[in-house]
């Protein structure tokens, strides 16, 4: 079976079968890891290098292309895999800025007041070096975002937001950006292609850190962009080739293997997250639970319209930094570590990092829920929360 973009097959089926070699008797089921950087030369009729044939691995190898085929199908566009999530972020930003070059004015970027610190750090650097004007907005305030994109060049959206879990109305803000003549890019790492498809909601580009849920095993560093705009797709590919922000073939092979089981991992972890969020609401040490799967969450209604599930990430607000650090020190099943989306459950006080925004509470703990038995996860959290009050 070779699924196609108009295939009636469900995404859960397509992600298992996309990116496979042709069904040849005696042939492999999985794509091989292509390790050669040097390829046989191809010459066109004029005696020059044949532009239709890859002549050096930096332009693309079959192992990358298998993963790109799968991601592109799931998101509804052309995918490009890069060496890390921040490389994908940087590529999307730079390509939009390149589009606006020569306008005679400094490009304006609208971005959330808090979000992934790597993205905001990059935007801060571009502002500090005079290459952009940066407008910060509340990611949950649709009206403020719509107003801010008037006269902007790029709208950067992250939904749900890292680590505060706001949900941005993608249809409204991406539509406003398009009407204003701005490009919109959505970081959809938290949701994955199974829970949210920003291109279908009006975005120009979707960005993923494949390091997280897609690869799923905390052993891969990769990113990706996906766009349905042919011009943007070509520009992103050119940027990757010029900048050298290319992925390793073995990493892309691992990420494709991880993608095969994304649905079952996501289902288990999301079920766990829902149970834990509901129980955390009742614990006296917890001031607030941030999870769009809760009816009381401010993002619940929007998430219900644009997502196919609330995801595997949640956050809790404790009284302060001391309590949050005590929680992290007291867990035994959970792991105190940065990152998210792996099979193991991780937690972290985000303000311990100097790059985290001051709008993130000191006592906020981000929880990346894994696939362990939910009762073991809850028992560990409960004893650790109890310990914070001593």
From TrEMBL:
<dbReference type="InterPro" id="IPR015421">
    <property type="entry name" value="PyrdxlP-dep_Trfase_major"/>
</dbReference>
<protein>
    <submittedName>
        <fullName>Trans-sulfuration enzyme family protein</fullName>
    </submittedName>
</protein>
<keyword id="KW-0663">Pyridoxal phosphate</keyword>
<comment type="similarity">
    <text>Belongs to the trans-sulfuration enzymes family.</text>
</comment>
<dbReference type="InterPro" id="IPR015422">
    <property type="entry name" value="PyrdxlP-dep_Trfase_small"/>
</dbReference>
<dbReference type="Pfam" id="PF01053">
    <property type="entry name" value="Cys_Met_Meta_PP"/>
</dbReference>
<dbReference type="InterPro" id="IPR000277">
    <property type="entry name" value="Cys/Met-Metab_PyrdxlP-dep_enz"/>
</dbReference>
<dbReference type="InterPro" id="IPR015424">
    <property type="entry name" value="PyrdxlP-dep_Trfase"/>
</dbReference>
